[in-house]
Structures are given as structure tokens and as C-alpha cells.
TrEMBL record, chains A, B:
This is TetR family transcriptional regulator. Residues 7-67 form the HTH tetR-type domain. The keyword DNA-binding applies. The lineage of its organism: Bacteria, Bacillati, Bacillota, Bacilli, Bacillales. GO terms for molecular function: DNA-binding transcription factor activity; transcription cis-regulatory region binding. The keyword Secreted does not apply. Keywords: DNA-binding, Transcription, Transcription regulation. Residues 30-49 bind DNA. It comes from Paenibacillus jilunlii. InterPro entries: DNA-bd_HTH_TetR-type_CS, Homeodomain-like_sf, HTH-type_TetR-like_transc_reg, HTH_TetR, TetR_C_27.
Amino acid sequence: MSKSSSFLSKTEIMDAAEQTLRRFGPDKTSVTDVAKLLGVSHGTLYRHFPSKAALREAVTERWLEEQIVAPLEQIVKAPADNALAQLKVYIARLIELKLHYAEQDSEMFKMYTDVTMEAAELIEVHIQRIMEQMGILIDRGIQQKRIAQSAATSSLARSLFHATSRFHHPAHAHEWRSASIEQEFEQVWQLLEQGLTASIH
Amino acid sequence: MSKSSSFLSKTEIMDAAEQTLRRFGPDKTSVTDVAKLLGVSHGTLYRHFPSKAALREAVTERWLEEQIVAPLEQIVKAPADNALAQLKVYIARLIELKLHYAEQDSEMFKMYTDVTMEAAELIEVHIQRIMEQMGILIDRGIQQKRIAQSAATSSLARSLFHATSRFHHPAHAHEWRSASIEQEFEQVWQLLEQGLTASIH
């Protein structure tokens, strides 16, 4: 699969990087391994990604967009009579996706975990995407008079995201194996739902 | 400070272990280092603590009890007209204590973080202590008709603990430096407070 570096696209590099990461794991993968797989020089790769961290972040960013944000977008786009119930489905799906990747795609999940700890900016961009999606559902819920506008939409979205961190933040992945984790989410959600609807009842 | 092993108490061993941990850090401290400081043999220590992990867990357990649970007990014991406000003070203090130790006692905090990831049972016992304290405040709030009994007290306590994990769970320590962290807690608390009082208004 050797090819002229002039035709090397960022997508091709990221594909090769993802393949290499899955094979060797995020700690052992070097830029040289990726270059080898592409049949190009180390220097060629560095022209596109100035450091191993930059490459790792680009791969993580794409992974988050394709594997987390895209499936969630389906829920946001689906018409729903009850946007509050849809908001719970959205968060439950976010949790389910994280659990799925923690178990089924552990190398990529480990890389995402490392990047979460190290690249605050990239993760903040990802969280912004999630906030926007949740914001659409919250606004819909306010219009349907199922959610009380007790604070700005963005603030409600962020609070819901933070209050459910234990169930979707990768640092908690080792707690997700607990037998009571689903029940615990149900209980947290019940309290949050009461908070979201408080002024309506 | 060499002394006969027959007089060696668990407390003395833990004191020496804590001192050694602070000096060398949790990763580099060995049982031999602790034995050296006490002037006893390696074997003598193993009679009290069968592994390095056991010693580390005992030290962490004592640290959590003395540095976290004991100061929080002061809040629980103080008489208060508004147990809901007191509950917020309690959680804010829990957050403040964790932040303080993350910054001021980083070796012990690192050990506590490691143990949190590895010794689920010990941490569950600690969380039970926190749940009991929060439960007292919740029951007081229900009696004062400031908190709605929307679920069992223990379930409400656990949900509050989980919903605020981002602000006190050691895996999130690197996020606590954010300039907006206090405001974010305020917003999460507002939503939770609305949930706690929902059926009362």
C-alpha cells in the first residue's frame, strides 16, 4: 500500500493510525509504525501531524464524532411528542455507547480516556457538540411545557451532562461493571427529571 | 526508633507507612521502607499487614475517616433550621476537602485515587459513611418539609452523591482547576435542589 506522499490525505493517515492503534495499543504505537503501514517516511507524516499527540487527538476527535455524536444525532432528529422522555433516551444512549466501546473497542476507548485527561480543549469541543444536541431537546421540552425554563438552556444542558458524568465519563469506566449501575442511573435521572419539571407541577 | 515487634501496634505501623508514603510517594514506597523506619523486620510487618496493598488500604481508610468523614461530621452535628441549605453546605465542604487534599497533600491524594480505582470494597464502605451522614440531613429536611420524600432516604443520598461525582470523585481532580468549576457546581446544585423540593412547591 505504498504510495506517493503528495497524494496522502489526512483521512488516509487517520485510517492507518487507527489501524495501528488497534494493533499495538495507544501506548506502544509510534508515528513510525503509522508511516511504515502507509509506506511513507516519518517526515511525511510530520508534515500533516506535527506530533504523535496531534495524530492521536485527530483520531480521537474523528472517533468521537462518528461513534458517539452521529448515533446521538439520530435521536435528536427523530420527532417526539415528549422531548423530556427523549432527553432521557438521549442520555441513556450516550451511556450505552460509552459502555459499548469500553467493552468492545478497548484500545480506542483507552486512547479516548487518555486524551480526555490530557487534551482539555479537544474534549471541550466534543462536549459542546453534546450540549448543542441536548439543547435542542431541552428547547423542544420547554415548548411542549414538559421542561421548566429554570435556567438558560445551555446551563441546563451542561448541568445534566455533569450530573450524569459518573455514567459516561471514561474515568468512571471501571464502575460501569457494577450490577446496580442501571438502577443508579434511573434514580439520578428521577431526581434530575423532578428538577427539570419543578416549576411546572 | 527501633523497638520490640511485640509492642508494635497497627497505629504505629500506619503512622510509619504514612510518613514513608509522603516521603517516597505511593508507587515507590515498599513494605521494606516502612519496616526500616520502624526498625523491625519485613516479616514483622507482614504479620500485621499481609501485603503492601493491605497496608496501603489501611492507611487510606484511616486518612478518609480522619480527613474527610470527621470534618463533615461537624456539619451533620450542627443544629440547623434549614437542613436543605445544610445539605448543600455538606456537599460543598466534601468538594472543598477533596480539592484541598488534591492540592496540599498530593501524595496521600494519589494513593487515595489509586485505591479508589482498585479497592472497590474499601471505597464502598467510605461511601456508606458519607451516605449515612447525608441521610441524617435528608431526614431532617423531610421533617422540616424542605425536602420532598420522593424516594427512600438512602436512594436520595446515593443519587446526590453520584450526581455530584464530577466535583468530588478523585478521577476528576484534573478538572477542578477549571475557572468555572464553582459555577458549574452551583448550577448542578440548583437543578438537584429543584428535584429535592419538587413535590413541595
